[in-house]
Amino acid sequence: MNTRTHRQGRTGGRPRRRPYSGRPSHGRRRQGGGRKLPTFDPSQFINKNPVEQKEEVYTPKNTFTTFGLDARIEKAVADRGITVPSPIQDQAIPEIMEGRDVIGLAETGTGKTAAFLLPLIHKTLKEPRRQTLILAPTRELALQIEQELRVLSGSLHLYATVCVGGTNIQPQIRGLKRKNHFVIGTPGRVLDLINRGNLRTDKITTVILDEADRMLDMGFIHDMRAILSGTPKDRETLFFSATMTKEAEALVDDFLRNPVTISVKKKEVTNSIEQDVVPFGHHNKFETLLNLLEDESLRRVIIFGAMKHSVEKLAKELSRAGIVAESIHGNKSHGQRQRSLAKFKSGNARILVATDVAARGIHVDNVSHVINYDLPGTFEDYVHRIGRTGRGTKRGKALTFVPEKSVSRLKNTGK
Questions:
Q1: 341: helix, coil or strand?
Q2: 43-52+268-412 and 56-264 share one CATH topology?
Q3: Structure confidence by residue, pLDDT tens digits, 40-60
Q4: Is 352 helix (H, G, I), strand (E, B) or coil?
Q5: Are the C-beta atoms of 220 and 248 separated by less than 8 Å?
Q6: Three-class secondary structure assignment of 286-303
Q7: Nearest-5° angle of CA 178, CA 181, CA 183?
Q8: Does domain 56-264 have CATH number 3.30.420.240?
Q9: Are 104 and 262 in contact (CB under 8 A)?
Q10: What does the pLDDT look like over 121-134, one tens digit per residue?
Q11: The dihedral sign for the CA sequence 232, 234, 235, 237
């Protein structure tokens, strides 16, 4: 695939990165002036007897050679060693090929990216004037989608520009001046480029909202509505989300036309992962963490913190204590995040300290433990966090730091 995602002065060059503010464009955050501290019943974090859930074996109705895809696309899939469509691919690809609007209820890791890219690559080869806009919650996910597009389209001469915050906007402006079959970006940066007059939306044929629930949770609702409102009424709209909130339902009602709903839910995370609480005193939280990490069974650990600055501070404190730790959060550039993630994946760092937003879409194999050093903002965030461990057939464990007084109350109530 010929891509112009990162041009700056020379072919294939990468722009210099600006520090990311960690906010959606225009500074939109949840209103209320300051972070609202979450409150949970500590018993929600305890499951010492996880259920061994066997996922039902899915029998696909199609193969990659019966979807009617271009032969070059079929070859690209075969070259990757993929022979059997996942459930979301098996059910969504035929609907997208038919031009239907789709609601795909599927989590990350179900193969949904290829489920929408494969039929759209096929359609674009048949109709080169087509233009697809893909919105994603984070720059990491946007870049993962672009990479998947690059692999699946091979040398088919399809062009894409990635438009995300936290990077120099000028290469993106230059990329949008050229022909693009796909524009992939985060809502804030995409709307910024639309408002600047650099991205026209009147010719867009397909809009994809990937991980729509996360975009809504991050406060992108107004940006998403503004972007969709500027696209043609007869566009195709594909809506992928792990959950369906009232806000998501309202978006679907306003912008999708007679959509078909496809639900592919994986095993219930909270039932299949061992979970427990870690009591800590007001003045010994960090010492409690160090004592916990002396256990060698905590081989590869993701620690979640609430704020960017506290995540960075914790990673530095762990390193000073002799525990190799890396951090990912919104104040780090994309390059810095990728280097930290690479060290964690390679085993050169035992610990990865992360914020919820930065960790979205990150997949690392063989994470033995997830530690909630700070409580998550919502129970949905908790489920997302602990899903980083116990992936596939592997067993994992999640530990949540809870003040001693809360644990004492839990014991007193007999729970």
A1: helix
A2: yes
A3: 777 888 888 776 656 567 889
A4: strand
A5: no
A6: HHHHHHHHCCCCCCCEEE
A7: 80
A8: no
A9: yes
A10: 999 999 999 999 99
A11: positive
